[in-house]
């Protein structure tokens, strides 16, 4: 669509999985996309692959969401390349799963720093640019942000927190014409937590499905805001 041509999205953790699926969908719209990774090699390799197919341009950026300084540098790099940021997809995340007895302090801290504080940093660093563009923020939470489970203390805490954070900033920013939606997927066929997707994962949500959802939300009439969207596989295997 013409209205998306030359618009710019910044996607944290965009080299694979959900972030990659969203990047592909936005590039197909004609948007330019910056994807971040903690290693520049991964970011540039993914951008090179994306540039073979998309209608827009992909840029790889080295950034660590756990650092505010790194997020500011990423935003500066995107603006230097494209001149603006219209969409932020705060997607970078990880999971450590263990009982509270076995959960280490380092695992707890890394989970909260990445999944929750990292989103705060990404939003904070992008805010001035998004105010100028009257942009859209997508946070990628999880059904684990409303449903707790054993061995999920760190992950549940980070995603419950992210869901609450996202809804609060939605209220903070809507008078600035900035939209905020949090997407809460269930089982997704990605490389999350060291998983290697196979044909056995066909029943799961696919990363391109989340990309399609983001596109649908961007196309929605601006008077309407789906602020929290739960996404599930249609027919998971019987247990």
TrEMBL record:
Coiled coil spans: none
InterPro entries, alphabetized: KR_dom, NAD(P)-bd_dom_sf, Sc_DH/Rdtase_CS, SDR, SDR_fam
Transmembrane segments annotated in the record for this chain: none
Biological process per Gene Ontology, one example term: monocarboxylic acid metabolic process
SUPFAM superfamilies named among the record's database cross-references: NAD(P)-binding Rossmann-fold domains
Residues covered by the Ketoreductase domain: 7-192
Pfam families to which the protein is assigned, alphabetical: adh_short
Family the UniProt entry places it in: Belongs to the short-chain dehydrogenases/reductases (SDR) family.
PANTHER family per record: 3-OXOACYL-(ACYL-CARRIER-PROTEIN) REDUCTASE, 3-OXOACYL-[ACYL-CARRIER-PROTEIN] REDUCTASE FABG
Identification of the protein by name: Ketoreductase domain-containing protein
Organism from which the protein derives: Leeuwenhoekiella aestuarii
Higher taxonomy: Bacteria, Pseudomonadati, Bacteroidota, Flavobacteriia, Flavobacteriales
């Amino acid at each position: 669509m013409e209205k998306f041509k030359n618009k710019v999205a910044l996607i944290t953790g965009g080299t694979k999985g959900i972030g990659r699926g969203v990047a592909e969908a936005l590039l197909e719209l004609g948007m330019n996309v910056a994807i971040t990774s903690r290693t520049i090699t991964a970011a540039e390799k993914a951008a090179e692959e994306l540039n073979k197919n998309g209608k827009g341009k992909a840029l790889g950026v080295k950034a660590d969401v756990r650092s505010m300084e790194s997020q500011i540098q990423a935003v500066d790099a995107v603006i230097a390349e494209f001149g603006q940021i219209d969409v932020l997809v705060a997607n970078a995340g990880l999971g450590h799963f263990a009982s509270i007895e076995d959960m280490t302090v380092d695992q707890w801290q890394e989970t909260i720093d990445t999944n929750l504080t990292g989103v705060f940093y990404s939003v904070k660093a992008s805010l001035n640019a998004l105010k100028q563009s009257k942009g859209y923020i997508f946070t990628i939470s999880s059904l684990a942000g409303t449903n707790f489970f054993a061995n999920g203390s760190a992950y549940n805490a980070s995603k419950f927190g992210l869901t609450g954070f996202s809804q609060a900033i939605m209220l903070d920013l809507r008078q600035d014409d900035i939209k905020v939606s949090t997407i809460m997927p269930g089982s997704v066929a990605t490389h999350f937590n060291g998983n290697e997707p196979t044909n056995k994962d066909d029943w799961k949500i696919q990363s391109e499905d989340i990309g399609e959802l983001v596109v649908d939300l961007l196309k929605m009439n601006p008077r309407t805001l789906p602020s929290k969207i739960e996404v599930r596989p249609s027919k998971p295997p019987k247990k």
